[in-house]
Every structure is written in C-alpha cells, then in structure tokens.
Sequence to fold (254 residues):
Amino acid sequence: MAYHFIAIASDYKGGRRIGWHYASNESIKKEVIQDFLNQSEDYLGPIQFGIHKLSTDSVSWESVISKDSFFEDVFIIEDLATFLDILGSDQSLRALDIAKFLLSLAPMTHLKLQKLLYFAYATYLVDFKKRLFPEQIVSFKYGPVVEEVYCQYKNYGKEEIDEDKAEVFRLAEVSLPTTVLKILLSEDRDHVLESLIKTFKIYGIKSAGELVEISHVAGGPWERCYDSGMNRIIPDDIIKKYHQVELDYVENDR
Fold:
C-alpha cells in the first residue's frame, strides 16, 4: 500500500493547476507535511491549496491518475523547492526560460544558443507584434546577444551546454523537464510554442558559425546597430523592419 499527499494550487494561472506530490510506502510523515506548510508560508505567505490524501498500490503518480481522473490535468512537481519557486516567481517569460527550453530540445554551444534565442525573439516579434521576453537584444561582435543569458552560460566557452535534466514535472503519463513548464503555463503559450518550433525548424539544424553568418547579413538588424566595443541595443523597430533580410538570406542559401 502507498500513501499520497497532494497539494494543488487549484486556480493557478486561470485554472491550469499545479501541484506538489509526496508519496510513501509507509504512513505519511507528519513532519514532512509540516515542513511543506512551513516552507510554503515562509516563501509565499498566505496561500490556499487544495489538499488531497489517498492510497494506491504504488508511489507512482500514474497510480494516482488511474485511481482518480480528477488529477489528469495537474502539472505535478515532486521537488518542493522548484514547486515553490514556480508559484512564487513572476510568471511572465524571461530570456532564460526560453534559453532553457531551447536547450531541452538539443544540446548546443553558448554561441549557437545566443543566435537561436535572438531568432526566436525576432520571429515572435515579427509574427505577433510583441516581445517574447523583456530583456534587451544587444549587438556583440559575434551577433545579437542577451546579456543575462550570456552571464549564465559564458563559463561553458566553446563546450556544449549540459543542462541539468533531473528536475521534472509530470502530467498524466508524461514526464518533462521543468524548464518547459513556464512556457506551458504562460498565457500566450500557443504563440510562444509556435514561434519556438518555427525558429528551430529554420535555424536549429545550422551550425553556430552559419547562424553568426546569418545574423551578420548586410542590411540586417545587427549590421545596422553594431558599433565595435559599444554593445549597443538592437531596438525592436529595427528587428521588425529588417528581420526579413535575415530570412531572405536563409532562403537564398538553401
């Protein structure tokens, strides 16, 4: 016999429910539950959870869904720190969220990541007339860069970035990295995913060097803003107006 404790933020982001799951083959330990309640209050302040307790024949999340379909659409996270961090954070997407999503699709160098991040931003901006994330795009020597992501991964140098895939969330029988969760829970998730998939189809198969070449195309946004050593911001209006030059370059290179 397995015992389960599930805490659900039942009105999270307009009904997209997120939950923390604790299971044991023995009785539920009161100290674990008390620690959950203490950490939740310390980190989030007063917050209402839907609390559920049940027993199944396994500690797996799949056994919970098999017993009660009520839990099928709950985004379950078993790491408490990650659960609290997602609930407590600003749910608007940041550049690092997009970068981690791209890394979940395929390992890549920091240089390639920066270029894909820029092209994802440009694609979303042109297609949907709004910013994918609030961080600025800056013109570095080797193309457009998001400085916050640069600081996060610069120590990798030319090596491929190996993101930690240990933390996962569960939805029904599917397990995915928690890097995907904020995108799935974002209000504009359909457009965001559309842009990221479109970006990866066009640019994902290309090498870092090829992506640098595309971003440096004459008349493109980077070329119009770059000033050696200045790291100037590439404004959104320049990206919207001249991103087509980059797309034309890709099309002519096929």
User: Anything to note?
Assistant: Residues 110-128 form the longest helix (19 residues). The mean pLDDT is 89.
